[in-house]
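Exam revision sheet. Question 4 asks you to relate a sequence to its structure. Input first:
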Amino acid sequence: MAFRLITLNLNGIRSASSKGLLDWAAQAGADCMGVQEVKAQAEHVDGRFDQIAGLKGYFHLAQKKGYSGVGLYVRKAPSDVRVGFGDAEFDAEGRCVEVRFDTARRKFSVISAYFPSGSSGEERQAAKFRFLAAFHPHLMRLKAEREFILVGDLNIAHKEIDLKNWKGNQKNSGFLPEERAWLDRLFGGDADGGLVDVFRRLDARPEQYTWWSNRGQAWAKNVGWRLDYHVATPAIAAKATAASIHLEPRFSDHAPLTIDYALTL
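Answer key, structure tokens:
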């Protein structure tokens, strides 16, 4: 059996739905879909977006209106749902939700996360670094006890292959040496990393992007960044069989990333 997992930064669930999200999701065949930048509160979601394409949604929404927020839509009822990751600053921003599918034989989670952007200035870049410092040990604690797939907008392009204009972006948020080093550590082979960039396990081609700036003609010229990831424990990553980036129709400045896994919940 295949488990189809999609990640998508919505750039606002109400905006995305007005541009065809719901019709696309109905045809996408997902078993689970992680979404980021929901940009809505519970009153906007309940009764309207709490189910999509036959999948039930679980959310971590920001306290600030119209800001951040993540969700996971699942076909199978989870054994547990964890909202936030225990950091007061970032839990207030709605940045992480985890659904667990635990059985007597296996502990397995899917996590949807939205990493902060530092592009608006030094203050938010400092917050991004605080998030990275707090989130890494959280992932290592999870890895010590369970298999998982983290999906989401990490707001970091890892390698030169992962953005068009890498030479001109080495001093810009999203491609800073410290951010890239964080991913080096996460994907490293030692006990302080050991996770897998699943898309790159399956697809080594250049110009595979998931986000394009709204400035200039970035979309038309494919001047993009690969910011959206599936990050998995090695045993789960080894079960990935196919990956695709959905380019059209567009309902966000990000593209959905779909990966199929040879596993059953």
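Marking note for examiners. The helical segments are 13-18, 21-28, 42-45, 88-91, 122-145, 177-186, 198-202, 234-237.
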